[in-house]
Amino acid sequence: MKVIAVIGICLCIVTMSGFSVEACTTMLVGKDASVDGSTMVTHTCDGNYDARVRVIPGQDFEEGAMAPVYKDLCHDSIPGKEMKQAGEIPQVKHTSTYFNVGYPFMNEHQVIIGEDTFSGRDECFNDQGLMMIEMLQVFALQRAKTAREAIQVMGELAEKYGYGDGGETLTIVDGNEAWMFDIIGPGPFWTPDSGKSGAVWAAVRIPDDHVSMASNRSRIGTLDLNNPDYYMASANVVSFAEEMEWYNKEKDGEFLFWKAYNPDPYGAPYYQRRREWRVLSLLAPSLNLDPYLDPEKEQYPFSVKPDKKVSVQDLMTINRDYYEGTEFDLTKGLAAGPFACPNRYPTPKDVKPEYAKDTDWERAISIFRCSYSFVAQARNWLPPAIGGVLWFGEDAPHSTCYIPVYSGVLEMPRPFSSGSRSYYDKESAWWAFDFVSNFADLKFSYMIQDIKTVQQELEGQFFAMQPGIEAGALKLYEEDPQKAKVFLTNYTKNMAMLTLARWRALADELIYKYNDGYVNGKQVGYPTEWLETVDYGKTNVVPAK
After folding, report:
1. Could you tell me which residues are beta bridge partners of residue 403?
2. What is the pTM of this model?
3. Angle CA(119)–CA(122)–CA(126) in degrees, nearest 5?
4. Could you count the other beta carbons within 10 Å of the beta carbon of residue 139?
5. In whole angstroms, how far apart are CA 151 and each of 116, 368, 514?
6. What distance in Å separates the CA atoms of residue 264 and residue 233, rounded to the nearest whole number?
């Protein structure tokens, strides 16, 4: 068996270019852990992904219809990486309306999905698998009305048709439950006619009064499959690990999914765990978690009870975090420059100092290369068209504005549903937010205050309007659900375009306010501490003879 594993590694090194590890962060909140009884889920999509939000209407199909299956759906807006049809599967009689983006995230039934990549063992990759993670999300959103159903749809399709992607985590909510779902491939020797499962997967429901998160490492451990209310898994979840000699019950004791399938997360030593520590510490500071936890000896808890009930605004704040006020604060130190910029760009190994070849900058939750992020809530006391609201932000979380997008929305405005990250498009909403984010890096400590002012102005307005908007939508829904959907569509489109117009105006304001390094035409220079650190003025001192 060890020989097979070694061969598998070699094959996978050749074939693994099919998936990305640009990385994301996602959070889950149970309904009894939130301030209003909603379940919540977040996602920061941290890489070059399709940021266009498009509503794909539900359809009815004739008996015998087939559904196309695509590769590279999440990169479709990137030239040269357009989606390609890889096959097809039998279509269902009716599909639900869903929202398509890099990683499709919501349907009309307020089933909402977040995502992050953990990659997992190379030996699990299989290039014959038909299903990529984003395609599983499409089918789940088209065919499921609950989070539990979504997991069952994805699990069954991946097992039958094969999973051809890297290890992935999905966080899934409906109005009642919050689940974490991990999936990985069946190894290079699986074929569609092998008679074996084409995927290995597991899912855990978090307690209703708990919160959880994932950041590029599998966090599912124990699986009590005798408790189907809280645990689900493929039939091979343990046996495949035993077959590959990654788990031995006598030697290892209790089976842990992450230990079998993702024992060595990619990246620098704390690339994943620092974010685990940060999210859990912000939500449950009383736990006093150790930021330097030794992964060989201990793990952070899979889920925790928060110290206080969690709001949408709390999760937005966490999405925007770069360790402010901690020893890892990215606005501090020489690397932040004179104006406390938290961004740290990827550094190739060949230019790293010898002592730091295998380490990296701290990895924040909010990161400059984010395509989009969201905070979403599902509420079981409202009709799904109204109860599901996803607060969507283009580009980096710290410099974006979150706009409300309801489950019942029928279309998005063109600037939010078109464009590409691969070429500048002044009509695209993404580029308006990306410009403000990039320009702010020039004088971050100043400009982020201007950005926060507009964020608070707009988001505060949206939150203040929310009760009235939803009351009006509910009244219309009782008359005719379609009228409510049209009303919410118009509201979402209007708020999206209002935000875009304000962001374009903000860009103009920043350009003239901070022109040539001045602030409204006044000299501000540099912080004294930074000047001292960089030996300011010493070249003008005559050396002693």
Report:
1. 392
2. 0.95
3. 95
4. 23
5. 16, 31, 50
6. 22
Beta strand 84-90 with 98-100 is: unpaired
Count CB-CB contacts under 10 A for residue 101: 26
Is residue 320 within 8 Å of residue 312, measured between CB atoms? no
Alpha-carbon gap, residue 444 to 438, rounded angstroms: 10
Q: Could you tell me if 375 and 315 are in contact, meaning their C-beta atoms sit under 8 angstroms apart?
A: yes
Sign of CA dihedral 11, 17, 22, 26: negative
Q: Which residues of the chain have pLDDT under 50?
A: 1-20
pLDDT in tens, 401-453: 999 999 999 999 999 999 999 999 999 999 999 999 999 999 999 999 999 99
* Encoded tokens for 381: 């006391």
Sign for the CA dihedral angle at 384, 385, 386, 389 comes to positive
Block residue for tokens 């701290």: 362
> What are the start-end ranges of the H helices in 199-311?
239-243, 249-252, 257-261, 273-283
Nearest-CA neighbor of 219 among 278, 281, 171, 254? Answer: 171
- Nearest to 466, CA basis, from 38, 28, 57: 38
104-122: per-residue pLDDT in tens?
Answer: 999 999 999 999 999 999 9
Written as one letter, the residue type at 274 is: R
Q: Enter the tokens of residue 288.
A: 């006093």
Q: Which helix (H) or strand (E) holds 529?
A: helix 528-533
Handedness of CA 227, 232, 234, 236 (dihedral sign): negative
In whole angstroms, give the CA distance from residue 316 to residue 337.
26
**303-304 and 39-45 as β-strands: parallel, antiparallel, unpaired?**
unpaired
Q: Is 253 left (phi over 0), alpha (psi -120 to 50) or beta?
A: left
* Residue that the structure tokens 């089933």 belong to: 111
Q: For residue 333, give both structure tokens.
A: 């130190």
Work out the widest C-alpha separation in the chain, in whole angstroms: 94
Sorted by sequence, the CB contacts under 8 Å of residue 255 that are 6+ apart come out as: 222, 223, 238, 241, 247, 249
